[in-house]
Design brief:
This protein is mostly helical. It has one domain. About 80% of the residues lie in helices and about 0% in strands. Helix 4 packs parallel to helix 10. The longest helix has about 55 residues. The two termini are about 35 Å apart.
């Protein structure tokens, strides 16, 4: 929703001021389809040539995610920490082996089923169960697990940044493709120098629309999408950091209630629940 609102404001101001100053919008509209096909067609071809199939697929998914609200809300984080609290509390009371079945088969685990929002997110479930499995095995110390967690989170962040970088490169190339379209328009105009001045003026105006469109598409459309996608990717990384901090605190001997407090402190302030709010929630979900 906010993406569409932003685009409407940007395009409305650009074209609205142009019209208000007496600009002939028909010149722009006449050249728009041809210039758009030239610029976007060249940009799309370069985009495909510049990225691996997995990055192309992730970029398409990223475009779709930009038009959806963030799933990383306070209620999601509270549910996540309630799940971690229940798992750690069960392990503390009944021993680590008590959560072995939950870890090995989370899809049939009553604990994971109770928290459907995070329980259905395979990335979150896999991250939690992988490290709980290591905790159950007892073969690694907290420092070794922390190093492994950091490596996995860095990999996750790097993979998430690939479509962001691809879209940023696309945005960076659009002004140049706009110049290409403009140069072709000038070449076409130079081949018609015998035409009346009014005709030549319209042809030059159409050629300049290419430069205008390339810059507008770059900084008004695609660069904002890349920035938004990067913010969403950072939120996903923050969730993994919250899980990491909670599990490490538990491994270092802190009680489940304190361990989830460690995790709470990692969250962004806009989604971070208050201490009392989280405490009431996790105890109410027991």
């Amino acid at each position: 929703m906010f993406v569409l609102i932003g685009w409407l404001v940007a395009l409305g101001c650009v074209f609205g001021v142009f019209i208000a100053h007496g600009g002939n919008i028909s010149v722009v509209l006449h050249a728009l389809p041809f210039e758009m096909i030239t610029i976007m067609g060249a940009a799309l071809g370069a985009f495909v040539a510049n990225n691996q199939p997995k990055v192309l697929k992730a970029s398409l998914a990223g475009f779709g995610a930009c038009f959806k609200g963030s799933k990383y809300t306070k209620s999601r984080y509270m549910e996540l920490m309630a799940l971690l609290y229940d798992l750690l509390q069960k392990a503390r009371k009944e021993g680590l082996m008590a959560i072995e079945k939950d870890v090995e088969d989370p899809h049939n685990s009553a604990l994971f089923q109770k928290y459907a929002t995070v329980g259905k997110d395979h990335h979150v479930v896999e991250f939690i169960t992988d490290y709980l499995r290591m905790m159950v095995s007892g073969n690694l110390n907290p420092h070794e697990i922390e190093t492994l967690m950091d490596s996995e989170i860095d990999t996750h962040h790097h993979e998430g940044h690939q479509p962001v970088a691809a879209i940023q490169r696309l945005a960076g190339g659009l002004p140049a493709f706009g110049i290409v379209a403009a140069v072709l328009g000038v070449v076409n105009t130079m081949g018609s120098v015998g035409q009346p001045p009014a005709v030549l003026g319209a042809m030059i105006g159409s050629a300049l629309v290419g430069t205008f469109l390339g810059i507008l598409l770059s900084y008004g459309i695609f660069e904002p999408l890349a920035g938004l996608l990067e913010q969403k990717m950072d939120e996903g990384t923050k969730e993994l950091q919250c899980i990491k901090t909670t599990l490490l605190a538990s491994m270092q001997g802190y009680a489940p209630a304190i361990a989830v407090e460690f995790g709470r402190k990692v969250l962004y302030s806009t989604e971070r629940p208050a201490f009392k709010e989280l405490e009431d929630h996790v105890k109410g979900k027991k």
